[in-house]
Amino acid sequence: MGALRTLYPEIEPYETGMLDVGDGHQIYYERSGKPGGKPAVFLHGGPGGGISPAHRRLFDPDVYDVMLFDQRGCGRSLPYASLEANTTWHLVADIERLRALVGAQKWLVFGGSWGSTLGLAYAETHPERVSALILRGIYTCTRQELSWYYQFGVSEMFPDKWERFIAPVPEAERGDMIGAYRRLLTGDDEASKLAAAKAWSIWEGETITLLPDPSFSAPFHDGHYALAFARIENHYFHHGAWLEDGQLLNNAGRLRGIPGAIVHGRYDMPCPARYAWALHKAWPDAAFHLVEGAGHAYSEPGILHRLIEETDRFRNG
């Protein structure tokens, strides 16, 4: 593989703003890199996460004009932690609004984890608007994937952390952890809501890297951040992301002719590699990188290396 690629130097956005997308929502966006350069959009994870300065650094700032935004209800978007009018298809429409704002006919779409789900939903809905598609940590949001992470599967790998995850839920309700957490996260008891938000989020933060890295769970000890993350993520997963089961893989034929890349860690706990492999088989236009010695996080060295190689590969395409 040679020397591992690292993030580009830190840069500041050249434009920031709030876009009114209707339904009472305003989404925060920022543009960075080269004004008028190769258009790209970054789709963050969660759902319920948000963008960070490091995300700008996945793209060559001398080439790309990158749009980053906080999806509905999270980050700096308003209203914070809102579940109203907040579905996959609202977000797909928001991406189109942002593309129109940029004035791009097509753009490179980059998404990781939940961002890969959203990237697939967008590209399968608007394939004519996608110049290339780079996806990391493939998650197709099937019932099996949700059960693997929130009911039985990853629980067998992390029994100590699983015990902390199930602790806020009464034993009689543990047969449906997503449903039980929904009741807690949308209830009227603020203390229980906050405790549930932290437990839900920390479970994810502690299981996404191959080796322990406390920096991923540390932000979730902040109840304000954890609340949006947990509420929105649980909301989406409770509803199966408003997708028919298997929809994204079944419709992968709509990606035909779109060049791209699939980057996935061999030991990705939240997102089993079999779904990345299935997407690879269904979308042969994309390069496929199954990264050995890596989990789920984009910042793990082998994954980061491949992601920056791929954004570099599409600089002129």
Automatic annotation (TrEMBL):
<comment type="similarity">
    <text>Belongs to the peptidase S33 family.</text>
</comment>
<keyword id="KW-0963">Cytoplasm</keyword>
<keyword id="KW-0378">Hydrolase</keyword>
<keyword id="KW-0031">Aminopeptidase</keyword>
<keyword id="KW-0645">Protease</keyword>
<protein>
    <recommendedName>
        <fullName>Proline iminopeptidase</fullName>
        <ecNumber>3.4.11.5</ecNumber>
    </recommendedName>
</protein>
<dbReference type="InterPro" id="IPR029058">
    <property type="entry name" value="AB_hydrolase_fold"/>
</dbReference>
<feature type="domain" description="AB hydrolase-1">
    <location>
        <begin position="41"/>
        <end position="297"/>
    </location>
</feature>
<dbReference type="GO" id="GO:0004177">
    <property type="term" value="F:aminopeptidase activity"/>
</dbReference>
<dbReference type="InterPro" id="IPR005944">
    <property type="entry name" value="Pro_iminopeptidase"/>
</dbReference>
<dbReference type="InterPro" id="IPR002410">
    <property type="entry name" value="Peptidase_S33"/>
</dbReference>
<dbReference type="Pfam" id="PF00561">
    <property type="entry name" value="Abhydrolase_1"/>
</dbReference>
<dbReference type="InterPro" id="IPR000073">
    <property type="entry name" value="AB_hydrolase_1"/>
</dbReference>
